[in-house]
Amino acid sequence: EVQLVESGGGLVQPGGSLELSCAASGFFVSSYAMSWVRQAPGKGLEWVSRINSGGDMLSYAETVKGRFFITRDNAKNTLYLQMNSLKPEDTAVYYCRRDGIGQRGQGTQVTVSS
Q1: Residue 56 and residue 66: Cα distance in Å, rounded?
Q2: Residue 72: which residues within 8 A CB-CB, separation 6 or more?
Q3: Burial of 2 (0-12, 13-18, 19+ CB in 10 A)
Q4: Residue-wise DSSP of 6-64
Q5: Which of 5, 79, 96, 110 has its CA at 20 to 30 Å from residue 26's CA atom?
Q6: What percentage of the chain has pLDDT greater than the value 70?
Q7: Residue 88 carries which DSSP code?
Q8: How confident is the model at residue 100 (pLDDT cuts 50, 70, 90)?
């Protein structure tokens, strides 16, 4: 079964850090470009970061550049998003996405609040 399962979300204070994980099954994350996207309350889907299939091209939205870092562990078939210096405006449900297919997981909630 082809599946994406995100985890690692939670409540964190402004300035804190979280690492999100996205475990894939049914396909290899190294065979596809993968992205993280997020949806804040009452807003549309926002692209956050992308890693290409080769793993050597990383890109970030301007709103997270320098604070968020996307990585991939091919042996674990898992995608990660390290989020540092979190801000209240980063509050959203975060999804990993298999690009080109448009497949997403169920998402993980990140709430940044004091």
Answers
A1: 17
A2: 29, 30, 34, 51, 55, 78, 79, 80
A3: exposed
A4: EE--EEE-TT--EEEEEEEESS-GGGS-EEEEEE-TTS-EEEEEEE-TTS--EEE-TTT
A5: 110
A6: 100
A7: G
A8: confident
